[in-house]
Amino acid sequence: MTDKEPTPAEEAAARAKEKAEQDALPYRWTQTIGDLDITIPVPGNIKGKDLAVTFTKTTISAGIKGQPPILEGTLAHAIRPDDSTWTLTTTPSADTKQIEIHLDKINKMEWWPHVVTTAPKIDVTKIVPENSKLSDLDGETRSMVEKMMYDQRQKEMGLPTSDEQKKLDILKKFQEQHPEMDFSKAKIN
Asked: Is residue 2 predicted with pLDDT exceeding 60?
């Protein structure tokens, strides 16, 4: 079974459906590879003491005290609660304020398809990350990202990835050391 690429029309329809589902949520959310930000509009007369916002490593609940939560459920992935925050901010319109929630992801190499598991998903394969400088990354992460970028470029050009090249180099070295052996029927896997 092969996965066939969606047509541009199917792709556009899928994006439109996803946008409609996200627009229908009572909150907005954005993410980077390392964190997630949620904004929830509330009436302009609300004060911080009127809010009930809690999160644990795997759950979130946010809303106005005495009312059903506006956002509640099991998070798509784990967060660091001690490094996550929330604030109540005033918007340009005096009629509304918003709860701004910042969640610090534990896994900083993973895109979230949704905030809570009961919400509609987004297609994380369509996320285009903001440009970040490789120099911003720590040494180990930087070398891993550089290797992934190199391997991606190699694949796109139909050339061997770094791991495949290592195997080919080992084989070539072995062939040079053993000229008496016939490798014409050898299968490399």
From this structure: no
Cβ contacts of 21 within 8 Å, gap of 6 or more: 120
Distance (Å, whole) CA 167 – CA 133: 31
Would you say 10 and 18 are in contact if contact means Cβ atoms under 8 Å apart?
no
Task: Give domain 8-128's CATH number out of 2.60.40.790, 2.80.10.50, 3.40.930.10, 3.40.50.720.
Answer: 2.60.40.790
Give the residue extent of every domain in the chain: 8-128, 139-177
Strand pairing class (59-64; 71-74): antiparallel
Count the neighbouring beta carbons within 10 Å of the beta carbon of residue 71: 21
Instruction: Write the burial class of residue 61 (CB in 10 Å: 0-12 exposed, 13-18 middle, 19+ buried).
Output: middle
Cα 42 to chain centroid, rounded: 27
The confidence score (pLDDT) of residue 135 equals 65
**How many Å apart are CA 152 and CA 161, to the nearest integer?**
8
Q: Which residue has the tokens 């905030």?
A: 115
Residue type at position 5: E
Question: Per this entry, what is the length of the chain?
Answer: 189
Residues 6+ positions from 50 with CB-CB distance below 8 Å: 64, 65
Of residues 160 and 141, which shows the higher confidence score?
160
